[in-house]
Specification:
The complex is a heterodimer. Chain A is α/β, with parallel strands linked by helices. Chain A is built from twelve helices and 13 strands. Chain A is globular, with a radius of gyration of 21 Å. In chain A, 55% of the residues are buried. In chain B, 39% of the residues lie in helices and 19% in strands. The chains are: A alpha/beta, B alpha/beta. Strand 2 of chain A pairs parallel with strand 17 of chain B.
Chain lengths: 350, 618
């Protein structure tokens, strides 16, 4: 095994609008277990960012602690990253976003990170509508501490050593819907055709975008008693809709076919095209999305795809009416009221 | 029954040197009237201090406001019995009567008679039918409640010879823009003033005489200074969670930002404040913003410090600027939330697991709260580490006579070692944790600066100089040693200890810090009168500068005065400077009230007296 990536780049590699190849969006070689679903997510992120022609240095990679949170090292090496503390990535991302709203915030978290220690912070970052992409690599197990049950483990499932989950699971998509996320999706890490366009749409979305990504753990949760194993997920996955992301520059809306397609125009003019597998499927109905997730769960199925989208949602900065210039770039003369004003303030205390 | 109008007990005459205490019920709106009383004294040119003693309760419990006048500038809590008590709370009435000094006065609402068994024959009773007057004069129930307070202030003006014109001007200033409120307030003042003049022999033996001792000083609380200092220091991002007694720091910051930081053209804010879900999120937000290059802070108190400890360790190890304003209160655990202490010194100096150390600043006055708060942003940017301001409830929430807030427009924010796109262009390679200058402080970059240079991964795990994850022992040790070197650099940047030597040679040195300073000049005066001259040293920051060790070396006996049970500063000095703890004698107060000069001096005298027989034996 090689521990360093070759700098060699084949001349035939396709380049994006910035003249960058996929290689320019890669990170270090993964130290996760071979076959880990998280590596598939990293790969999907690399494709999404490259295809969107985002400047890598304008992206901030945020994470907490855990296998999932190690993943940002393995993509976008020209981006700043911040591996914070367990479960507290949302607050750090909130602060980072308050300081500079002009970056794209890609956050990776896990089921332990978000559904256990970080559940409170997860809930609050959703309700604050922070403009970020919040991805949970959900394998239903604690990997770095070797196989303990997670809060997203389904009731009744067993872990590798045979312990049964006695309690109800936490469904982060349902929570995100209830708390007002404006973009909610569930994906399977093994379905790149679904994952890449959804990540692209999430990045283009102005507001809080949540993607729960079922990401099987090959080491601790890939056994018959698990509902997060590759085999189980592949057998039980149901796609509610197939999503295409159409960047604004590549297609005009007049060409969009009618019928079983639904087209949603995002803030930047991009189109999100949804091929409805179920005719009743409606991505603008928050309540129905919650019902759909639950109904599929009761049937033993995992509903994937874009579950809900509100393209008109306001972002944290819009709600707060903060200045257009990012806070970290506002100059001293606008921040410091100066001696003369201080003299008046002093007078008010005499 | 007593004659409520009598004032017959002989009293020693005192001018500009006594204590007036207001006993009120929490939530009855007495604060502004009491504050007006204190401010009137200041406007008459007399040094004055005011302390709130209030319960951890919203409404209904007893609360006191203690005003001390002293033209010698002895403005710490005096302690002992009180010369004049305005007793407006039935719940605390018995205790308030007991608290009056022999020969002193109890001003009370005589709408109801005092039961005979509560009477003392060594104090004077000044009964004013305040409720009855309000009932007769005001229709509005809220006014009837609020003006009770204004009426007793008016009465005190007559009783203590406070210039009525000063009070009238204060009312005008207080209700500027709300002119309709001025007339009834002045009327209420007049009601009290006239009643006292008509029924008592005014002024009393305790009285106020105009002086010119205030200069350009202001009367303000420390939390206002801290919040305003953060505005001047350039803070733009705040994550916070309400906790007494720190809440008003952020509230003041927010209110000054609303006045001073809104873009007139767009109406948009040049600041962002989030009331977080808890203290963990509050500091997380400040760290995220600091990492991204904005000046950010949070404010909290003891329990919040405990919750923030993990993040403080991250900020220390990942080297992220952060300002934390800690308004200390009595601990441990929930302790006494509305009582003061200096008991977070060690918790803050070493907050978090592992070998962690933080820069601390110890303001002594509202003006220094302002100065330290503004300075902390420069220090934390320059050092890329958390800076914790160690204020406390007494300093933060009470009004103090203070030097005015000072800012020099020539001051430019020191952002420290941040690389620009041009500097990165000119560099062959960048390593986030390389000690290029040998001072332990490395260069950092912000996300979005350069397309292909300067990106790095920030983490709380060990890494090498280039920010690459590493568990190699050599990398870890090198990094930890550099952090120690950075801490030594910090000692050269923080404010030096302030030393004042006595006029006579002495072998006795007093070390103190923070709000304890209020009692020190008086303690020194008392000691001097007892023939014990002392030198003083006020510690202003941690890590300690060399002057602290020198001061200790120069004195045979050192007393460390602080407001906690375990002599935390003494431990810190002893540990950090490798000084035998037996060289440092603690003088401690931890009852939740501010330390008094009387206690400091008597503890020191007692300690010295204890030693005399030993010396004779030797």
């Amino acid at each position: 095994m090689s521990f360093a990536k070759s700098k060699f780049r084949h001349k035939a590699l396709p380049v994006n609008d910035l003249g960058l190849t996929y290689r320019d969006y890669e990170g270090a070689i993964s130290t996760l277990c071979a076959g880990c679903g998280h590596d598939s997510i990293s790969s999907a992120i690399i494709h999404a960012c490259a295809e969107l022609s985002i400047e890598p240095h304008k992206i901030a990679k945020m994470s907490g602690i855990g296998c999932s949170s190690k993943a940002p090292t393995y993509f976008l090496s020209n981006s700043h990253g911040f591996n914070t503390v367990h479960g507290r990535m949302p607050s750090v991302t909130t602060g980072a976003n308050m300081a500079n709203k002009d970056l794209t915030y890609l956050a990776m978290s896990g089921d332990g990170d978000s559904a256990s220690i970080g559940l409170g912070q997860f809930a609050h970052v959703v309700r604050r509508q922070l403009n970020m992409v919040y991805m949970v690599a959900n394998n239903g197990v604690y990997g770095l501490t070797k196989g303990q049950l997670a809060a997203t483990s389904d009731r009744g499932v067993k872990n590798k050593v045979g312990d049964t989950s006695l309690f109800n699971d936490i469904d982060l998509c349902t929570m995100a819907l209830q708390l007002g996320a404006s973009f909610v999706a569930r994906c399977f890490s093994g379905d790149k055709a679904q994952l890449v366009p959804i990540i692209k749409a999430a990045i283009a979305h102005q507001g809080f975008a949540f993607i729960d990504i079922i990401s099987p753990c090959v080491t601790f949760n890939n056994h018959p008693g698990s509902t997060r194993s590759y085999d189980y997920v592949q057998e039980h996955v149901t796609t509610g809709a197939v999503t295409d992301f159409v960047p604004t520059r590549e297609e005009i809306t007049a060409q969009i076919p009618e019928g079983e397609f639904e087209d949603i125009c995002l803030h930047d003019g991009s189109i999100l095209r949804i091929h409805k597998l179920d005719k009743d499927y409606d991505t603008s109905n928050r309540l129905k999305a919650m019902t759909d997730v639950e109904e599929h769960k009761q049937r033993g199925e995992i509903l994937t795809g874009l579950l809900y989208l509100d393209p008109t949602a306001s972002t944290f900065h819009e709600l707060n009416n903060t200045a257009d210039t990012p806070m970290n770039q506002v100059k001293q003369d606008l921040l410091c009221p100066g001696e003369r004003v201080l003299g008046t303030i002093n007078d008010s205390f005499r | 029954m007593i004659n409520n109008n009598a004032a017959t007990i002989n009293t020693t005459s005192k001018v500009n040197d006594f204590v007036v205490k207001f006993a009120n019920t929490n939530g009855t709106g007495s604060a502004s009237a009491n504050n007006m009383f204190a401010k009137a004294i200041m406007r008459m040119g007399i040094p004055v201090s005011a302390k709130n003693i209030f319960p951890s309760n919203i409404q209904g419990s007893p609360t006191w406001y203690e005003v001390r006048l002293n033209e010698n500038e002895f403005l710490g809590r005096r302690g002992g019995k009180t010369e004049i008590i305005v007793a407006m709370n039935a719940q605390s009435f018995i205790a308030d009567i007991e608290d009056v000094a022999p020969g002193g006065y109890l001003l009370f609402d005589s709408s109801k008679q005092i039961p005979e068994q509560l009477l003392r024959d060594d104090i004077n009773y000044l009964g004013i039918p305040i409720s009855a007057i309000c009932l007769k004069e005001f229709q509005n129930p809220r006014q009837r409640q609020l003006f009770k307070n204004v009426i007793y202030v008016g009465a005190l003006a007559a009783l203590l010879d406070i210039e009525f014109g000063v009070l009238k001007t204060l009312v005008g200033d207080q209700f500027k823009g709300k002119e309709k409120l001025i007339t009834p307030n002045v009327y209420a003042l007049e009601l009290g003033f006239q009643y006292a003049n008509n029924n008592f022999s005014c002024p009393l033996n305790y009285k106020v005489e105009r002086r010119d001792l205030i200069g350009n000083r202001i009367m303000v609380d420390g939390n206002t200074g801290s919040g305003l200092g953060a505005v001047y220091g350039g803070a733009t991002v705040v994550g916070w969670y309400p906790i007494t007694p720190s809440t008003s720091v952020v509230e003041k910051f927010a209110s000054y930002c609303q006045r001073l930081r809104i873009d007139p053209a767009t109406g948009k804010k040049n600041f962002a404040i989030v009331q977080a879900e808890d203290e963990l999120a509050a500091i997380g937000m400040a760290i995220g913003a600091g990492w991204n290059g904005a000046r950010a802070f949070t404010a909290t108190s003891g329990p919040g410090i405990s919750l923030m400890a993990e993040f403080l360790g991250l900020a220390y190890f990942a080297e992220i600027p952060l300002v934390l304003i800690n308004i200390q209160r009595a601990g441990p655990s929930t302790g006494m939330p509305t009582r003061t202490q200096q008991s977070d010194v060690l918790a803050c100096a070493y907050a978090s697991h592992g070998d962690t150390k933080h820069v601390l600043l110890f303001p002594e006055s509202p003006s220094e709260c302002f100065e330290h708060s503004a300075l902390a942003f420069d220090l934390s940017d320059r050092l890329q580490t958390p800076v914790i301001i160690m204020s406390d409830l007494d300093l933060g929430m009470n009004d103090h006579l203070s030097a005015p807030f000072i800012w020099n427009d020539k001051q430019k924010y020191d952002l420290g070692k941040v690389l620009s796109i041009r500097e990165l262009d000119n560099m062959e390679s960048f390593g986030r944790y390389r000690d290029v200058d040998g001072d332990g402080i490395c260069y950092r970059t912000f996300a979005g600066t350069h397309p292909n240079k300067g990106a790095f991964f920030t983490r709380g795990t060990s890494r090498n100089e280039d920010a690459i994850y590493s568990e190699k022992s050599a990398d870890y040790v090198k990094n930890m040693e550099r952090l120690e070197r950075k801490f030594s650099t910090a000692a050269t940047l923080i404010p030096k200890a302030e030393i004042s030597s006595g006029l006579q040679n002495t072998q006795i040195g007093l070390i103190y810090y923070g709000s304890t300073a209020q009692a020190i000049s008086e303690a020194k005066h008392i000691l001097h009168k007892q023939g014990i001259p002392v030198d003083l040293m006020r510690i202003k920051g941690f890590p300690f500068g060399s002057e602290i060790e020198k001061f200790i070396d120069q004195h045979e006996q050192i007393f460390v005065i602080e407001q906690n049970r375990d002599a935390q500063m003494r431990t810190l000095i002893s540990t950090e400077l490798n000084i035998d703890p037996n060289r440092l004698t603690p003088v401690l107060c931890f009852d939740g009230l501010s330390i008094t000069a009387k206690q400091i001096s008597s503890d020191i005298i007692h300690e010295i007296e204890q030693q005399i027989p030993n010396q004779e034996v030797v």
